[in-house]
Design brief:
The chain is α/β, with parallel strands linked by helices. It has eleven helices and twelve strands. It has two domains: about 120 residues, Rossmann fold (3-Layer(aba) Sandwich), CATH 3.40.50; about 140 residues, Rossmann fold (3-Layer(aba) Sandwich), CATH 3.40.50. It is globular. The protein binds NADP nicotinamide-adenine-dinucleotide phosphate.
Length: about 280
């Protein structure tokens, strides 16, 4: 790409209208007075491979990837980071000058940065973590918690086989707990994370018993619509430290923005306001 060409980035998915990324990146571009555009693109499954090869020719420097393509882009990329390989999915692509597509996963980074910013006293190594859910997002959460020094993860999922698979992939610090037992393994946990879609607008409410939560436990929810889920509300009433899921979405976008537009953006209150509209 020539030096005077305006850098383009965007997010691909199917559907894409729900994505908050255009609002987020647009806010950062305006705030920092940068040249560049960030565009949502709904791509049909059959067009994915051609699109990835064609967009760099139009001046695209990279993409965010959302459902249902986070796994498939790994096969289409030329270089995949170790963490994206371990997680089995990528959310950030960089189109390099040499024509190669580089795939990374920044979800775990976003998850941990959100906790560091909003619960600075959180000590991952202080005790066991309970992770609810074993879907796509859970893999990044488990990887990042293990990386942060959590001594034990109690992983529980409605469909047990998905949790067993994570244990197989992530090793002995992961212990699978039956879904019906989820409420019974929280009393000595210092971290509790919901990675299921329960509690999200349009989905069933989370019914896991929460009376075992101890004051001071860090409780966080990946669901951010609504911001205040039942899990966070009950946890706050019980004296837990609560962090909502919006910050993860904001922080996971930082590395991509920096690579594409050449400036590391801040995640602050104005970022949240801009994204929430
Ligand atoms: P996914 O792969 O579809 O996994 C969904 C998870 O929710 C699975 O563990 C599933 O259990 C569980 N689940 C769904 N319905 C359930 C029910 N009725 N009872 C019990 N468990 C149920 O989705 P995902 O990509 O992991 O995303 C999960 C949530 O995280 C979504 O709400 C998503 O918006 C959110 N998320 C947030 C961020 C962020 O930046 N804050 C990033 C990624 C994802 P089964 O295996 O039994 O089906």
């Amino acid at each position: 790409m020539s030096a005077d060409r305006i850098p383009l980035a965007g997010v691909i998915g199917h559907p894409i209208h729900h994505s908050k990324s255009p609002r987020l990146h647009g806010h950062w571009l305006r705030k920092h007075g940068l040249r560049g555009h960030y565009i949502p693109m709904e791509i049909a499954p059959d067009d994915l491979a051609d699109t990835l090869r064609f967009l760099p020719k139009l001046g695209f420097v990279g993409l965010n990837v959302t459902l249902p393509y986070k796994e498939r882009v790994l096969e289409l990329a030329d270089l995949v980071t170790d963490r994206a390989t371990l997680i089995g999915a990528a959310n950030t692509l960089i189109f390099r000058r040499d024509g190669k597509i580089h795939a990374d996963n920044t979800d775990g980074y976003g998850f941990i940065e959100n906790l560091r910013q909003n619960a600075p006293d959180w000590m991952p190594e202080a005790g066991p973590a309970v992770v609810l859910g074993a879907g796509g997002a859970a893999r990044a959460i488990v990887a990042s918690l293990l990386d942060s020094g959590v001594p034990e993860i109690r992983l529980t999922n409605r469909t047990r086989i998905r949790a067993d698979k994570l244990r197989e992939d992530f090793g002995q610090r992961v212990h699978v707990v039956e879904w019906v037992q989820a409420g019974n393994v929280m009393d000595d946990a210092t971290t509790v994370v919901n990675t299921t879609s329960l509690g999200m607008v349009g989905k069933p409410e989370m019914r896991v018993p929460l009376d075992g939560l101890r004051p001071g436990t860090l409780v966080t929810d990946l669901v951010y619509t609504p911001l205040q889920t039942r899990l966070l509300r009950v946890a706050a009433e019980q004296g837990c430290t609560c962090v909502d899921g919006l910050g993860m979405l904001l922080h996971q976008a930082v590395p991509g923005f920096e690579r594409w537009f050449g400036m590391r953006p801040e995640v602050d209150e104005s970022t949240r306001t801009a994204v929430l509209g």
